[in-house]
What we know:
This protein is α/β, with parallel strands linked by helices. The protein contains nine helices and twelve strands. A five-stranded mixed β-sheet has the order 2-1-3-4-7, with helices on both faces. A three-stranded antiparallel β-sheet has the order 10-12-11. A two-stranded antiparallel sheet has the order 5-6. Strand 11 and strand 12 (261-265) form a beta hairpin. Helix 4 (101-111) packs across helix 6. The protein is globular and about 70 Å long.
Amino acid sequence: xxxxxxxxxxxxxxxxxxxxxxxxxxxxxxxxxxxxxxxxxxxxxxxxxxxxxxxxxxxxxxxxxxxxxxxxxxxxxxxxxxxxxxxxxxxxxxxxxxxxxxxxxxxxxxxxxxxxxxxxxxxxxxxxxxxxxxxxxxxxxxxxxxxxxxxxxxxxxxxxxxxxxxxxxxxxxxxxxxxxxxxxxxxxxxxxxxxxxxxxxxxxxxxxxxxxxxxxxxxxxxxxxxxxxxxxxxxxxxxxxxxxxxxxxxxxxxxxxxxxxxxxxxxx
Length: 268
């Protein structure tokens, strides 16, 4: 079986589980783009793909993450996956989905492209499922990489085929989301996504900008550790830079990398 995940950290965790269960061992395929943010209009057309790539290049320019999108070609990755499924009648694919907007958005983007392989495509949804952490306590992970490797022995029992109904309904739901073309998708549990504007995280992010100078990295880390809804470091860095460009805060240092500049509330 081929495993599909949507975050780089998931690869390391899933790989470690292979050491405990050889039946799981196979290739892990990463869908790199974060479809929970950014433009989605005509997402499968060459124009839509180019627009989205340009948006990411603008978001990431002049910062720590400026080169992470250069090697991203998820359409090529999916085409290679489809070739493997065509050339091997016994091959199956497992799509791992944790209850976060990143995984769910990636699933929606992917699933319509695999419709011709119905019966060979399985999903493992971890929504609202308890696991045991390293301290022996029950917890409900929001990300695949938070699950201890030994717990994947239990998780693999969740694999089920994607149904005919899902192959019909889920691409329609994704088309609706794409046509709304909002900038942010937020997980509301299961496969339900709420839509919001690009500045959705700004209000919460502003709570951690105080009257004292703080590095952007510290502001972002506080946000990620305390906020209910979170997103990537790269997106949050872009939002801070956007607020600085709007002259909402005092800033010192070079506004590029996450540790290069400091921010604080405007002086009276």
